[in-house]
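Researcher: Structure for this, please.
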Amino acid sequence: MKSKKGMLITFEGGEGCGKSTHANLLKDYLENKGFEVFVVREPGGTKTGEKLRQILLEEKSKISPFTELLIFLASRRELVVKVIEPTLREGKIVICDRFMDSTVAYQGYGRGIDITLINKLNNMVVGKKAFPKLTFVLDTDKHLGFKLKGEDRIEVENESFHKKVRKGYLEIAKQNPKRVKLIKVEGEIADIQKKIREIVEKHLHIE
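Model: Predicted structure, token format:
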């Protein structure tokens, strides 16, 4: 089944919140309901985007905050033009693991770059056709500042940085209540997924 105009659903949140898990569980659920679903991730999702991802997340990379912002935006633009917009035109559902709100939370609140500027750049890069219809922010404070050897350079930032990111996500959810749904990551995965599915069902009119 195809939705009439296509629909972009994004998953956001701090490190270790379960975005990828819930994005894929939702994909399976919607496909079982007859929808055509395509899952992508940021940064990445295209040949160029995956190369930029390696630069961004390489633990040894030394990148200034503004350069980091521009690389994320470049990767996003490639994903929008080459994957998201064409897939939405086909009436399919796109589920994206991170998208524009990550830039506000991480580079805005986390790195301290002007949020008004980030919003303007995000709007230019994303455009109206690829703007998310529904965003889930998975919120937890259990993984703030955790460090794992061999993981990416953003994930291993200190606790202060991750607290700023979480604050950013909470503020994004507060400012955009119609689009952004805050989901507390508490209890079993199945219970969290149930809450997500109930919200999606209302948007897609699934019975």
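Researcher: Any notable elements?
Model: Residues 30 and 170 are 27 Å apart (CA to CA). The chain has a mean pLDDT of 91.
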